[in-house]
Amino acid sequence: MTSAFQPDFEQLHVEDLHAFYGESHILHGIDLRVNRGELVTLLGRNGAGKTTTLRAILGLTGRRTGRISLNGRDIIGWPTHRIAHLGVGYCPEERGIFASLSVEENLLLPPAVRSGGMGVEEIYAMFPNLAERRRSQGTRLSGGEQQMLAMARILRTGANLLLLDEITEGLAPVIVQKLGEVLTALKAKGYTVILVEQNFRFAAPLADRHYVIEHGRVVDEIARAALPGKMDALHTRLGV
Amino acid sequence: MDLFNIPLPAILSQLVVGLINGSFYALLSLGLAIIFGLLNIINFAHGAQYMLGAFAAWFGLQYLGINYWVALLVAPLAVGAFGMLLERTMLSRLYREDHLYGLLLTFGLALIIEGLFVQGFGVSGNPYATPEALRGPVNLGFMMLPKYRLWVIVVSVVVCIACWLVIERTKLGAYLRAGTENPRLLQAFGVNVPLMITLTYGFGVALAALAGVLAAPIFQVSPKMGSDLIIVVFAVVVIGGMGSILGSIVTGLGLGVIEGATKVVWPEASNTVIFVIMAIVLLVRPAGLFGKEK
């Protein structure tokens, strides 16, 4: 998205972020920068702190210290719902489809946080399965359909920074491929995406940069171009 | 036609009387269910808040010249606002703690509020005049029913159905249902969940106060009126299923009727029948008739 007229705009800047759940100190000083329109992944083993990083950005963990700057505002002390209104869309690891709501109610639930969200028809065109099952109970959908719904409902709100947690986990290859197409389309539309992903083969072709997280710290940052030379080191880090 | 040698009109009239009690059970257990769903707090102050509604109506009529119809609106608003104050200043500190703390706090509040009213107004109770327009009987064919009691049944049923429709069919209700399931995620979507919790508690309390205003002309307005009723209402909530909206409405009305029927067949058992049903339901369906296992 870089051009002479629109230089890199730093959408999210996290500095020395520490986060706790009760007495457990989970993040030990995370540093990240994400520019508008970038797709960045957080890689790392289970328990490294990837999910906690996303949750800490939204204020969903316990106590936090450090600095989180979103669209130039320091949001570390803000309540969660106000952070969302700066244009953040969150897709949690467990998908978070509400059982007491129908598919359409789930889709329409999150309030608009910015103007310019996708229309319902546009979303149904992107995910035709959801249109067919709009009256079903949300949790009656298959795992893949629930993942589509979890993605679709944050696209409706106008959010332009998407925090996506393990969206391919446990899904069939054909669905993973569909999600890859969706992410490519979103990138072309200029969305900023932070993707937590175990499936490196899924993430590698999509991402502009990768952050490798270990024990609650960023231990490496790899740009797309540098990736081929770093594969061995990365495999050791991720234990794959 | 006689049943157990009891004339049919006698049975029907007891069922109607049961329905009046059921109207109060339904309104009160509905408020408890809404509060428990979102706040995860068993609101033991509900009986005291019902009593406050009745007292607000009585106080308004006695000292401020506020008539019944205005009280029907103003008393729930005032008591609901008081509830929101309790939520903001006290209950909101307990959400991270075990359910028991909320129960203990609200139970303590109920004791304090009742104690203060006993101190101020005595235990004997004060009469509240039935509003002019609702005096006199209606002929239902099998019995003469005071107009006011018919009014109580109608208001309760209408309010309960309206609440159910709002919760099940509107966007506001979708927020409430989603917040009941996963408040943190709802807040991550940008909904001001803390505000929603305060308003929901206020609404549940207002429903209790509304029941209190409705009760004022039927029962004596007395400090103990809530604690007498609330034990039965908790049994209703357990039978219907904690937190189930439809369950609280249906079992509230239904158990009132069953209580009435028991009065005809075996009067001695009418005070205990609800607890017997509760014991059986807990054995067969521990989550309640309409509850979901968590």
TrEMBL record, chain A:
<keyword id="KW-0067">ATP-binding</keyword>
<keyword id="KW-0029">Amino-acid transport</keyword>
<dbReference type="InterPro" id="IPR003593">
    <property type="entry name" value="AAA+_ATPase"/>
</dbReference>
<dbReference type="GO" id="GO:0015807">
    <property type="term" value="P:L-amino acid transport"/>
</dbReference>
<dbReference type="InterPro" id="IPR052156">
    <property type="entry name" value="BCAA_Transport_ATP-bd_LivF"/>
</dbReference>
<keyword id="KW-0813">Transport</keyword>
<dbReference type="GO" id="GO:0005524">
    <property type="term" value="F:ATP binding"/>
</dbReference>
<protein>
    <submittedName>
        <fullName>Amino acid/amide ABC transporter ATP-binding protein 2 (HAAT family)</fullName>
    </submittedName>
</protein>
<dbReference type="InterPro" id="IPR017871">
    <property type="entry name" value="ABC_transporter-like_CS"/>
</dbReference>
<feature type="domain" description="ABC transporter">
    <location>
        <begin position="12"/>
        <end position="240"/>
    </location>
</feature>
<dbReference type="GO" id="GO:0016887">
    <property type="term" value="F:ATP hydrolysis activity"/>
</dbReference>
<dbReference type="InterPro" id="IPR003439">
    <property type="entry name" value="ABC_transporter-like_ATP-bd"/>
</dbReference>
<dbReference type="Pfam" id="PF00005">
    <property type="entry name" value="ABC_tran"/>
</dbReference>
<comment type="similarity">
    <text>Belongs to the ABC transporter superfamily.</text>
</comment>
<dbReference type="GO" id="GO:0015658">
    <property type="term" value="F:branched-chain amino acid transmembrane transporter activity"/>
</dbReference>
<dbReference type="InterPro" id="IPR027417">
    <property type="entry name" value="P-loop_NTPase"/>
</dbReference>
<keyword id="KW-0547">Nucleotide-binding</keyword>
TrEMBL record, chain B:
<feature type="transmembrane region" description="Helical">
    <location>
        <begin position="35"/>
        <end position="60"/>
    </location>
</feature>
<feature type="transmembrane region" description="Helical">
    <location>
        <begin position="98"/>
        <end position="118"/>
    </location>
</feature>
<feature type="transmembrane region" description="Helical">
    <location>
        <begin position="148"/>
        <end position="167"/>
    </location>
</feature>
<feature type="transmembrane region" description="Helical">
    <location>
        <begin position="6"/>
        <end position="28"/>
    </location>
</feature>
<comment type="similarity">
    <text>Belongs to the binding-protein-dependent transport system permease family. LivHM subfamily.</text>
</comment>
<feature type="transmembrane region" description="Helical">
    <location>
        <begin position="230"/>
        <end position="257"/>
    </location>
</feature>
<feature type="transmembrane region" description="Helical">
    <location>
        <begin position="188"/>
        <end position="218"/>
    </location>
</feature>
<keyword id="KW-0029">Amino-acid transport</keyword>
<dbReference type="InterPro" id="IPR052157">
    <property type="entry name" value="BCAA_transport_permease"/>
</dbReference>
<feature type="transmembrane region" description="Helical">
    <location>
        <begin position="66"/>
        <end position="86"/>
    </location>
</feature>
<dbReference type="Pfam" id="PF02653">
    <property type="entry name" value="BPD_transp_2"/>
</dbReference>
<dbReference type="GO" id="GO:0022857">
    <property type="term" value="F:transmembrane transporter activity"/>
</dbReference>
<keyword id="KW-1133">Transmembrane helix</keyword>
<keyword id="KW-0813">Transport</keyword>
<dbReference type="InterPro" id="IPR001851">
    <property type="entry name" value="ABC_transp_permease"/>
</dbReference>
<feature type="transmembrane region" description="Helical">
    <location>
        <begin position="269"/>
        <end position="288"/>
    </location>
</feature>
<keyword id="KW-0812">Transmembrane</keyword>
<dbReference type="GO" id="GO:0006865">
    <property type="term" value="P:amino acid transport"/>
</dbReference>
<dbReference type="GO" id="GO:0005886">
    <property type="term" value="C:plasma membrane"/>
</dbReference>
<keyword id="KW-0472">Membrane</keyword>
<protein>
    <submittedName>
        <fullName>Amino acid/amide ABC transporter membrane protein 1 (HAAT family)</fullName>
    </submittedName>
</protein>
<keyword id="KW-1003">Cell membrane</keyword>
